[in-house]
Amino acid sequence: MTTLQDPIDVGLRAKKLSHGKLPRYSPLGLFVLSLAAMSGILAVFGSFSIPLAVFLGVILFAVALLVLSGAVEGGRAARDRLATTLMYSAFGLAVIPLISLLWTVLQYGLARFNGYFLTYTMRGVFGGMDAGGVYHAIVGTLEITLFATLISVPIGLLTAIYLVEYGPTRLGRGITFFVDVMTGIPSIVAGLFAYALFALFFGPGVRMGVVGSVALAVLMIPIVVRASEEMLKLVPNELREAAYALGVPKWLTIVKVVLRTAVAGLVTGVMLAIARVIGETAPLLITVGVVDSANFDLFDGRMMTLPVYVFRQYSQGLAPNGITTINYDRAWAAALTLIIIVMLLNLVARLISRFFAPKTGR
Question: Residue 218's pLDDT is what?
Answer without folding.
Answer: 94
